[in-house]
């Protein structure tokens, strides 16, 4: 199951699990659309391809909440 990280690792933008606009690699490194574009859709951590992260909402989100651990390092 996806961790659904709450923020962009590059700029810190909030990325709610129930909204689009997040991009992830196979290791779940998470970036906003602007940062994904800035790195040419390649994860700067592992070099993997960044793809649209699916959303999670309603009962699925209630039963399986998103992570609250932020990854952005100031």
UniProtKB/TrEMBL annotation:
<dbReference type="InterPro" id="IPR010696">
    <property type="entry name" value="DUF1272"/>
</dbReference>
<protein>
    <submittedName>
        <fullName>DUF1272 domain-containing protein</fullName>
    </submittedName>
</protein>
<feature type="region of interest" description="Disordered">
    <location>
        <begin position="55"/>
        <end position="74"/>
    </location>
</feature>
<dbReference type="Pfam" id="PF06906">
    <property type="entry name" value="DUF1272"/>
</dbReference>
């Amino acid at each position: 199951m996806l961790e659904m990280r709450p923020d962009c690792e590059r700029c810190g933008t909030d990325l709610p699990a129930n909204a689009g606009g997040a991009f992830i690699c196979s290791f779940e490194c998470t970036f906003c659309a602007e940062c994904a574009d800035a790195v040419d859709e390649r994860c700067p951590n592992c070099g993997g391809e960044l793809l649209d992260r699916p959303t999670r909402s309603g009962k699925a989100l209630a039963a399986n909440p998103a992570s609250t651990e932020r990854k952005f390092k100031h």
